[in-house]
């Protein structure tokens, strides 16, 4: 019996790892152990509940206003005894958060194999996204299994000299999650509120955007809403207090902008599937929206998801007010431009990534383990 331990801590990791937890639990030859760091608290718990995943271990490290050092140090200080007790054959981490980096570092120190889910995403700009580009590159140096979501991600790893036998193109588990959530019959009072308008969904949280760039984003959005009376905005706001303060300064007191608490993932995916357009700096939403045929204006200077840009559903619009404003305006006023972006494509997989990863781990020969 192999012991596979999954460690995650933030909302997006949970959305992409919970379907894998549930797939691994169906495999006879695998003992599945879940450890959450609790880097996020409420936003993590929302997802665990949605996927019926009950963690075996919870490090509960979140502190309001935590710094990168707090998160990293608190995980390193608490995860050691859990690794000793579970003694896993492999630890699966996801993507590029501080949970991912700190857990991988702890596993490296203890000579435990790491399986990296969503491996190989790159901007090759160490400051963007910050600190995620560093985190994911660092994990790639020490991971034994690299589960790349796309050929492009696999190519990045090969270019960096990673062992070809460690790389598996699986698709992104985000699409597995999406297949279980979107429903034609979904209804919600907020969707009723937006029924006769064009619904815009916005999200924003990136660390490098906290401050002036976020003011720029929200100012641009506010201008468009003021100029177009048929637009309504729903903004499920991140729990970061800095984001909340900036949103309050720029977007409050407008009856066509609803700032609401983070949505349950099932609700959020259905909101995405019903909206007209998305403005975001999120990573995961850049994977979900293309398969729903929804155009996304990515309010960032870089993206590690070039597949969606190539496919035409994502457009990078930077973090300056005028650039965001003019791109948003164009999509609202130019139907032809909108229609060229609004088509469903799925560069991120067929919804079977979890099955592939579980198959690989089930079949892996003992010698792949340290
Ligand atoms: C983290 C990840 C980022 C990921 C994002 C997803 C790092 C360095 N950053 O960024 O890669 O894209 O999660 O959302 O790992 N908070 C709560 N409750 C919650 C969640 C957050 O109150 O459930 C507040 C806390 O005050 C916390 C702050 O938000 O201090 C920031 O959380 P943190 O995990 O440090 O950073 P994120 O910006 O969420
Ligand atoms: N999401 C959610 N509720 C919300 C907003 C987002 O469930 O109110 C989901 C979204 O579908 C995606 C993930 O959260 O799967 C993205 O998380 P976030 O933007 O916090 O992080 P990132 O993907 O940028 O790391």
Describe the structure.
By secondary structure, the protein is of the alpha/beta class. It folds into 2 domains: 2-171 and 352-363, Rossmann fold; 189-342, Glycogen Phosphorylase B (Rossmann fold, 3-Layer(aba) Sandwich), CATH 3.40.50. It contains 16 helices and 13 strands. The protein has a 7-stranded parallel sheet, sandwiched between helices. Strands 10-9-8-11-12-13 form a 6-stranded parallel sheet, sandwiched between helices. Strand 12, helix 13 (306-311) and strand 13 (314-316) form a beta-alpha-beta unit. Helix 9 runs parallel beside helix 10 (241-251). It is globular. The two termini are 16 Å apart. The chain binds uridine-diphosphate-N-acetylglucosamine and uridine-5'-diphosphate.
